[in-house]
């Protein structure tokens, strides 16, 4: 409902205006004022969409009210002057102060209705423009924040943010990611994006006035669906708490309001927004090493990497020998080198925190090694997937058996990169999809058939075709289904089965998403 303020010192005029039209039907809620001063106080303290005011009133005229609202208080409400005098000077002065209309008394019903509808239409356009401006502003803010996360910014970016944030305050980057493996297996990329939008909406609801510091879909990895937050200490201070309980409450709010499986990664604290890229890098480190850590809902970088030893011992010789064995893909040697590493760490009596530091050194060296063979794909992400996939039930995450199995799988992956034969396999896989699209094809099965690491194959596939393997397969199935609907007399359930869908409802939903109509409607339209 729009709010209209009727202003006149004559009670019977106000009453007449109130009953002249059905205000509620036109979308208006009425307030009244019996003087210019009363109207001024009302419009200063409460939102008003339209003010309809008599021009001649004691103490403050309608024109004086208009001037004060526009000049002194910057009130942008639509304003209509009512006058018993057809004097051009009055109308001219009113228009000078951005008056919407100048109406002579007595006011006719149709004339008032036209004004109300005109204002309602103008308000819609103004609202749409405001929405568009806000979208553009948010898009610019997001680009600026993403630039800061990647260390690409200039003084203008910082100046733009200074009105809304203390750019020198202590802060950190917080990543909030969907745990995709806990979602439905058949979730497409589009469905995951919609789920991410649900997560983003819940985050904005919790953050309120700080929601502009929340960024949608930060990671460039095809396997990570996440949102990001630049946290600064003023956020928790406003709620009379500190960083950790604030973020714990944030995570709990997301769980309660979305019921989504999420993990929060809290980066290293840095001084000022100019250094936020350093905090962002530590979150990427946490994400890469998640597969080698016990599962948690929230990880704090400063806690995961806190070393309490007086001196930190890195077993560099044993680590380098293990890396050499992995590079040469010598499985027996890998097992021996893993044993030697753990024996050395045990003999040295180092703490668990220092042990983690040794493992971190190893994993980062493996990422560097793989990047030398292929720098175009996200090697951090592939390492994370290998770490996750090699952790079997009953196996201690991050333990010696886990490390040994991961090292052997990673050695096979390095061998594939060295041969550089994987890229040529994509053509064969494309032909396989064309021939066997109706079968239960999976990326895992194809990767085993062609002796490729499934994580690497998935990244290569997305890089070439611009979508995930599953979405590519479903798109091809939809094209084949469309041909069958157009050129055969097959029933809908027969078509679904013929292109690889056992669930007819699921097929129908996918077909609607791909073609914009149901299979039945498509069949009727295309065969007419």
Return the domain count: 4
Radius of gyration, in angstroms, nearest whole number: 33 Å
Helix-residue proportion: 55-70%
Low-confidence stretches: none
Strand content: 5-15%
Strand tally is 11
CATH architecture of the largest domain: 2-Layer Sandwich
Mean pLDDT: 86
CATH class of the largest domain: Alpha Beta
Number of helices: 23
Q: Helix- and strand-based class?
A: alpha/beta
What is the global morphology? elongated
In the CATH hierarchy, what is the superfamily of the largest domain? Reverse transcriptase/Diguanylate cyclase domain
Q: What distance lies between the first and last C-alpha atoms, to the nearest angstrom?
A: 48 Å
User: Major β-sheet, in short?
Assistant: 6 strands, mixed
CATH topology of the largest domain: Alpha-Beta Plaits
Describe the structure.
The chain is an alpha/beta fold and 528 residues long. It has 4 domains: 2-126, Rossmann fold; 165-304, 2-Layer Sandwich (Alpha-Beta Plaits); 316-419; 424-527, Homeodomain-like (Arc Repressor Mutant, subunit A, Orthogonal Bundle), CATH 1.10.10.60. Helix content is 59%, strand content 11%. The chain contains 23 helices and 11 strands. It has helices spanning 11-20, 36-45, 62-71, 88-96, 109-149, 155-161, 189-207, 233-238, 243-258, 276-289, 301-304, 316-328, 331-348, 352-373, 379-389, 400-419, 422-436, 443-449, 454-465, 469-487, 492-498, 504-515, 519-527; strands spanning 2-7, 28-33, 50-54, 78-83, 101-104, 170-178, 214-216, 226-232, 262-266, 270-271, 298-300. Strands 6, 7, 8, 9, 10 and 11 form a 6-stranded mixed beta sheet that branches. Strands 2-1-3-4-5 form a 5-stranded parallel beta sheet, sandwiched between helices. β4, α4 (88-96) and β5 (101-104) form a beta-alpha-beta unit. The longest helix has 41 residues, at 109-149. The chain is elongated. The two termini are 48 Å apart.
């Amino acid at each position: 409902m729009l709010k209209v303020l009727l202003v006149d010192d004559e009670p019977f005029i106000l009453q007449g205006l109130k009953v002249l039209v059905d205000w509620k039907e036109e979308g208006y809620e009425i307030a009244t004022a019996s003087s210019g001063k009363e109207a001024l106080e009302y419009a200063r303290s409460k939102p008003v969409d339209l003010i309809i005011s008599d021009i001649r009133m004691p103490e403050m005229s309608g024109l004086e009210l208009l001037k004060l609202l526009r000049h002194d208080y910057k009130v942008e409400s639509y304003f209509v002057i009512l006058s018993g005098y057809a004097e051009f000077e009055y109308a001219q002065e009113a228009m000078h102060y951005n008056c919407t209309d100048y109406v002579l008394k007595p006011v006719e019903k149709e004339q008032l209705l036209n004004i109300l509808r005109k204002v309602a239409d103008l308000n819609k356009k103004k609202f749409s423009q405001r929405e568009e401006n806000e979208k553009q502003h948010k898009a610019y803010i997001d680009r600026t924040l993403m630039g800061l996360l990647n260390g690409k910014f200039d003084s203008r970016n910082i100046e733009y943010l200074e009105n809304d944030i203390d750019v020198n305050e202590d802060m950190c980057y917080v990543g909030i990611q969907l745990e995709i493996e806990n979602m439905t297996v058949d979730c497409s990329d589009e469905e995951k994006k919609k789920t991410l939008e649900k997560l983003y909406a819940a985050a904005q609801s919790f953050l309120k006035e700080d929601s502009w510091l929340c960024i949608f879909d930060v990671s460039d990895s095809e396997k990570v669906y996440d949102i990001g937050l630049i946290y600064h200490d003023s956020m928790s201070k406003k709620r009379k708490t500190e960083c950790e309980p604030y973020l714990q409450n944030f995570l709990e709010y997301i769980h309660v309001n979305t019921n989504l499986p999420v993990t929060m990664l809290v980066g290293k604290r840095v001084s000022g927004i100019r250094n936020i890229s350093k905090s962002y890098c530590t979150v990427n480190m946490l994400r890469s090493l998640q597969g080698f850590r016990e599962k948690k809902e929230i990880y704090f970088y400063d806690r995961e990497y806190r070393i309490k030893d007086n001196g930190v011992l890195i077993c560099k010789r044993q680590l380098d020998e293990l890396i050499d064995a992995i590079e040469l893909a010598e499985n027996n040697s890998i097992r021996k080198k893993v044993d030697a590493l753990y024996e050395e760490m045990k003999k040295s009596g180092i703490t668990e925190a220092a042990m983690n530091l040794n493992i971190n050194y190893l994993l980062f060296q493996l990422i560097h090694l793989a990047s030398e063979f292929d720098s175009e794909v996200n090697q951090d992400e592939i390492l994370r997937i290998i770490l996750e996939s090699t952790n079997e039930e009953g196996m201690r995450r991050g333990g010696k058996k886990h490390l040994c199995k991961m090292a052997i799988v990673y050695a096979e992956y390095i061998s594939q990169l060295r041969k550089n034969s994987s890229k040529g396999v994509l053509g064969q896989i494309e032909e396989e999809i064309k021939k066997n699209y109706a079968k239960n094809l999976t990326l895992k099965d194809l990767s085993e058939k062609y002796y490729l690491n499934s994580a690497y194959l998935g990244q290569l596939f997305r890089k070439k075709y611009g979508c995930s393997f599953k979405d590519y397969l479903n798109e091809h199935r939809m094209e084949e289904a469309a041909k069958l609907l157009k050129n055969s007399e097959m029933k809908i359930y027969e078509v679904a089965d013929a292109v690889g869908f056992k669930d007819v409802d699921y097929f129908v939903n996918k077909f609607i998403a791909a073609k914009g109509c149901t299979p039945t409607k498509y069949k009727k339209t295309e065969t007419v």
